[in-house]
# Entry
Amino acid sequence: MVDIFKGSFTQQDPIPEDAIEAAVAVMRHGRLHRYNTAGDEIAETALLEQEFAGSVGAKYCLAVASGGYAMATALRAVGVKAGDKVLSNAFTLAPVPGAIAAVGAQPIFVDVTDGLVIDLEDLKSKLHHAQVLLLSHMRGHICDMDALMEMCAAAGVTVIEDCAHTMGAAWNGVPSGRHGTVGCYSCQTYKHINAGEGGFLVTDDPQIAARAIMLSGSYMLYGKHLAGPPPEAFTDIRYDTPNISGRMDNLRAAILRPQLRNLADQVARWNARYAALEDGLRNTPGLSVIDRAPQESIVGSSIQFLLKGWGARRVQEALSRCLARGVELKWFGAREPVGFTSRYDSWRYAPSAPLPNSDAVLSGLIDMRVPLTFSLDDCRLIARIIREEVGAVYQSAP
# Structure
């Protein structure tokens, strides 16, 4: 009998009851806009910012409409202008080059290693081309942040971290997003806390925080930000910074606050599922798991592996065989973008030079979501299906 997996790769956990109750309370009073408060009421959004800042040890936090908006705002706030160059990972998703394009800048893509992190040697060779690195911890893989920050500091390069996949993760005990000058996070449905859309920007720099708050559309209500800088930080900035509205609302904030309090428990659940999948996939002929550095504290909300040197036809055959048994895998080696999956050279608005080393990695890179709706038995079954189908294609190769 052939095992078939019958679960969904896109079904998330339900919103917790306390988050639903908080959201209903906001809808009952109707004050959804973050600056619409009654009497001495403190907005849900302001409270969420304060709580998120505390959770990662940041001085300042801004809640915004999306992770992509957080990145574009961070780029503007650190001074990136139209025509500037910005370094970024070759292995990433469309919102990252999209944020660079949104400010009129141009990306310079940096190679990815077969550990799925930015190639520090390639980065070193390109640091002189730009003053900002938008570093994507793509699919939750964190590079040697100590080495990267030392390198960037010596070159005078400002680091903005895209932590869409690493909320709750850390390098050497430092929360993801707290090595660079700015950390950006996402609360989109497939991320670690779920408001459908939403995001955060954190920093310890009062001027960057003040610019970001004005950019987000605070008008002159910046004093209502519990996790914002002091009023003097806004003295000149408030007149010189355009309003590019992208605020988070109180409804989303109400949904997120209980989830943030429960994040550590959710991380433990993800990592148990990741471990079950990794154990089941390890030592599969033709398949390479991605070994993680001991300094990296991960959030296993997705898993990746490599089919090195397989070629497009065999990769597609393996994916088709897995899909026929209910296992939905994504491939980063396809020439055309599909769904959420794309390559560094997919975007005509972000022209790129060829990166043969990255191409070799991406050609065999397979990706899979790990929803918390999966049980541990589900994960073991999925790993067994992948192992059998990848093994069958590998063994049949001439």
Q: What stands out?
A: The mean pLDDT is 96.
